[in-house]
Design brief:
The structure holds 2 protein chains of 2 kinds. By secondary structure, chain A is mainly alpha-helical. Chain A is built from 2 helices and 1 strand. The radius of gyration of chain A is 21 Å and the shape is elongated. By secondary structure, chain B is an alpha+beta fold. In chain B, 24% of the residues lie in helices and 30% in strands. Chain B has 8 helices and 13 strands. In chain B, a hairpin with a 7-residue loop joins strand 10 and strand 11. Chain B is globular and about 65 Å long. Classes of the chains: A mainly alpha, B alpha+beta. At the A-B interface, helix 1, helix 2 and strand 1 of A face strand 9, helix 6 and strand 11 of B.
Chain lengths: 61, 332
């Protein structure tokens, strides 16, 4: 493994450029924004998911 | 102490050397018919380098009596019932007197095999319950296990782990046995009987019967667990419009905190019934290459400053009714 010359962020961008050039297609970019401030929202959504799950009644036999 | 089959005195005692080249295949075929989970138990005993097995015929402890009463309520033609306790040791001994010198460190665990017979359902042989200490300690992590006492030849031993059980499909089904394994983590008595579960759910074996396609609902299962003292976090993945966290995260978080999970899944069974299995541990292999490679070679997640330990997990450890205890279940 060679000496590290760039950050992970730069490395990822470069990798995408190389892969796009090889495949001659545009990469599909998927961003999942998540910051510390999002934790309360995430937990609220989780509570909703669990509450909905509680209403489901499946038969186990 | 006669409440449980595991702690009740035996009525007969047979000591068998199981050192290689002793054949468990021969034992199963000649004495225990085709009992798949027992094969898995014997395999684990071999893994633990088992040297001696003790087989005791059991009398009529309260838990077996209770099940037989319920069986007779459901199937009044119940003809006979017998139970045997098989105990496994790493120590070598050939006489009952030597059991007094054997220690808990030598005790691998036990299995109670129950045989019920009736014209209405034929002959049923199953592992009524079993606890075998976990194996492959280097990469198997079982969380929240407890000590289970077991009497062998008049001496009390203990083994740590989770209880495995197989359903009789008459008074209890796969949901009951999964609940029993999980509920033991919370129940004040340390073990929740099938009768306790059935009474809680008004299953009387006459008007409301188990088996033949009848089972428990997920809401009933939650009621049982909550009655045992558990707090349930249900996660329903059957609704395609929901956008839940991956189920692996739920399970890993729970078992790593010392609390078992129950996984319910569909099968190819023609009646469309769902199946339930308890999960209480996981494997974790620090040599797994992919999570490190993702980060260093492929620069995946450039802003990632945290890779969850769950990434190094390959199997969940649980019990399955047909395949036996401490079985690895796929994580993906």
């Amino acid at each position: 493994m060679g000496k590290i010359t760039m950050s992970f962020e730069q490395g990822r961008k470069e990798l995408l450029v190389r892969m796009s050039a090889r495949s001659r297609k545009q990469p599909i970019k998927k961003v999942i924004p998540f910051r510390n401030d999002d934790v309360p929202n995430y937990l609220r959504e989780l509570d909703k998911f669990e509450e909905k799950s509680r209403q489901v009644n499946l038969a186990v036999s | 102490m006669n409440r449980y089959a595991r702690t009740s005195p035996g009525q007969s005692l047979e000591i068998i050397s199981i050192e290689r080249p002793y054949s468990f295949f021969h034992l199963i075929e000649t004495r225990f018919g085709d009992c798949q989970p027992l094969r898995r138990i014997f395999s684990q005993v071999r893994m633990h380098n088992g040297q001696t097995m003790v087989i005791e015929k059991l009398g009529n402890p309260e838990d077996l009596r209770e099940e037989n009463t319920d069986l007779r309520t459901r199937n009044p033609d119940l003809k006979s019932s017998a139970a045997y306790r098989l105990s496994f040791f790493t120590a070598k001994f050939t006489t009952p007197q030597r059991i007094a010198h054997v220690t808990d460190e030598d005790f691998i665990g036990y299995a109670v095999v129950k045989e019920d017979s009736a014209p209405s359902f034929g002959d049923k042989r199953r592992v009524y319950e079993s606890v075998i200490r976990p194996s492959r300690l280097a990469n198997n992590f079982v969380r929240g296990g407890r000590d289970w006492p077991c009497q062998v030849g008049g001496k009390m031993f203990k083994v740590n782990g989770y209880l495995y059980a197989q359903q009789n499909a008459l008074t209890n089904i796969c949901a009951h046995v999964a609940l029993r394994t999980a509920a033991a983590r919370f129940h004040p008595n340390g073990d929740m009987s099938y009768r306790e579960m059935n009474q809680l759910l008004d299953i009387d074996h006459v008007n409301v019967r188990m088996g033949e396609g009848n089972g428990l609902t997920t809401q009933q299962m939650q009621r049982v667990l909550e009655a045992a003292g558990a707090k349930c976090f249900p996660a329903d993945y059957s609704n395609p419009s929901a956008n839940p966290p991956p189920f692996q995260k739920y399970i890993y978080g729970s078992i790593e905190s010392g609390y078992p999970a129950i996984v319910i899944f569909g099968t190819t069974d023609p009646d469309g019934g769902l199946h339930a299995v308890p999960v209480f541990g996981h494997t974790l292999n620090q040599d797994t290459w992919v999570p490190n490679a993702d980060f260093s070679y492929f620069k995946i997640g450039a802003g990632t400053i945290y890779i969850p330990s769950e990434s190094w997990l390959s199997m969940f450890i649980g019990g399955t009714v047909y395949r036996g205890r401490n079985a690895g279940q796929p994580h993906r």
